[in-house]
């Protein structure tokens, strides 16, 4: 893996001085184009062995480019807000928006590599993490990001010499500590672990760029040119490269599907409804205060459904059993400007609850495989890859202790029509029916296909869908509440998070 | 203060049932209008004695209104991200955007009241805090927010009875703990402190609304009606109430001002420049790594100046002495959609550095009293009140340990013309001169007035302005660096933050 980076690469002072001015001018130029177009972000990972010039390289990029449009995030121990959420949350919140350059000094690779070297992570667990990382980076690239992963390498002797050199220079001596020399001892282990990590994560979409760190001039010029060339190349790509499209999703030829098989005649009379509502609201209210929930779990509720299926009413019945200080309802409408400048899932990541808290999504990330698919707001390749991205997203929540409960509220076409007309007749403006609602009705069949595909492809063990027969509001509300209670009880009863 | 809230106010069940449906419908209606117009946010503070129905009231508002457009923030111990920034940072980040309702369960009043009761805050310090709060709330109202501050009161006996009643009901018994009864003992002290706090902060812009909490029906109906009436009233205000405009700012009749007195002929030759640049960069680099800085201070740099005055070049020289992982440069351009939905200063608050970090603002909150004033982008009342708001903002930073250094880079009119022409001649697109730059030149005198007023009104002991003679870039850059070093040294040498 590191053979080409132990050849003693070097660039003489003369050449360096001659090359730099043109490189700087070109970098500024390309950065200007990047900013003007605002089509994609540049994500630069800076990693490698100690003393290989990571910090120097970052500072160099700042001095060669316009520092106002670069951000650098250093990640040490997670803050308590970060620790109370999935591992990747801190990286998501640090992603640069389109048009900007974000440098990660330390990244999603740092912790797994450190844990593996320390022996606190098994090889098989490491590989699971690396698979997650591969899918995460593929998602970034598919969303348009240019991802440049630098690994600065030093031979063992090279590292020792670099430390000595840093020590000799009064301007850099402070950077060499006992810990630096300590780390020399784990050199072999780092090479071994890093070699494996780099091999497994050296993907076509986000390959590693290994640079020898011994000679400052060589390293600086190499990084500068690569950044320049890669941004240039990406700017010239007029069409985003799409993942190959999967075979078309097939529909069962007998017309049966998960929605058609729902018994929409299911009802609950008023007396039963009130009894059960009270029962499950009391139970949920207790679960929300259980120490096992407050100290180690969070709850993510997703409500999807046809227009007028009663999402709002169900949400209110669930929320009524919680303390307002504990939950947040996030209605998903059009993304804001800041959200549009980020990968699709960014606007959902930002609302994930911390431990002991609840987020209720009124519509959700499933918009991509529902409305965006049906209306053609995104390409086929985009919504096809979304299934896997969404599964990853929910998996990460569950891994961090979140209980993820997803509802599809289904009503019949006639019942919807009846409710639309009813709403039109009431005088509360809030229930006004828009032309869009009527248009959506015309696409009923397309939505049915989309929903069935969604359920098939994203109903996972950790985050299964619950389909709710919602022609009768009483029945639907009780089913929703009951499901939330049961999922929570099951999760809190488990011996560990993973057992969920 | 609390006399009217000890009269045993009560509403019978019958009346309550009769009144509620119309109130709910009206609240939903008014909330819909609020959301449609997106002109202002509603900030509701819920505070008062234990057992007076704070939680119940919040949950009630959720069930009466559309919970998707309400957020509730409960504030307990600050997270470490919050603790590393000014006290008000956590409240700024929780402000609801225009069109939404934000409920604060616990607020900026909680800590001062608790500290005063515990005896850890002197009366005079409390009064300082209350003055800050008054100005903060006035700012919110001036920015358009509707601020409703509820205080729920119970007589001493009333509180004991409420606790007993909560205990009797199995659905609420869990909420009564030993601590609840403990707090009964401090009843008198709370009344005393709260009485003082409420009196001092009972302003015309954000008056307190004291509600007796004994009877649930009375409390609920009272709060519901007040929220309804106040939002309605605010919706009907077509013109925002402006603060009375201060007497016009006068210019000295001899034509002398702080800018005209600058000696723009000051220069530094290349040799001196390089020597001094190296000296101050090395010093700054050391200061940035000083434990006293890393553990208790942060640095906020503000760069303002005429077009082409050399802000960018100065920023780069300062940044070059810092580690990229330690600082962030924030270029201030047009606000984003999310920023426009918030008070003016919100977009600057969000970028404040945590302890040990640096934020460099390339243009800043002073836009309000410079470009917005000169171009008429805001009203006279808006920019006149901005001086005090800005002073408060910077004072809060300084109180939290930030060293605030502000630069105005001044060049002569001919020098600016020369630089414009030079830029037009270079082929780097990044230096392109826009029509706007030429237009700004026509308003030279108006900008001079605005700058002089700004310096006079916002150069404070904690955050003084440094005017930089910038006709010679070398001189300007060294003066900037030297000033940053000196301010930091002075701050780090001080015995305490306050001494700064």
Quaternary structure annotation: homodimer
Strand content of chain A: 5-15%
At CATH level 2, the architecture of the largest domain in chain A is: 3-Layer(aba) Sandwich
| Helix content, binned percent of chain A | 40-55%
Please compute the radius of gyration of chain A using only Cα atoms.
27 Å
What's the CATH C level of the largest domain in chain A?
A: Alpha Beta
Would you tell me which CATH topology of the largest domain in chain A applies?
Rossmann fold
Strands of the largest sheet of chain A, in order across it?
Answer: 2-3-1-4-5
Observed structural traits:
homodimer; 500 residues; alpha/beta; Rossmann fold; 2 domains; five-stranded parallel sheet; 21 helices; elongated
Write the layout of secondary structure elements.
2 copies of one chain form a homodimer.
Chain A: H1 13-37, E1 42-48, H2 54-64, E2 70-74, H3 80-83, H4 89-94, E3 101-105, H5 110-118, H6 123-142, E4 146-153, H7 156-168, H8 178-185, H9 187-200, E5 208-212, H10 216-236, H11 270-289, H12 291-296, E6 298-305, H13 311-319, E7 327-331, H14 337-340, H15 346-349, E8 358-362, H16 371-375, H17 380-399, E9 402-410, H18 413-425, H19 435-442, H20 444-458, E10 465-469, H21 473-493
Parallel strand pairs in A: 1-3, 1-4, 2-3, 4-5, 6-8, 6-9, 7-8, 9-10
Helix pairs in contact in A: 1-10, 2-10, 6-17, 11-21, 13-21
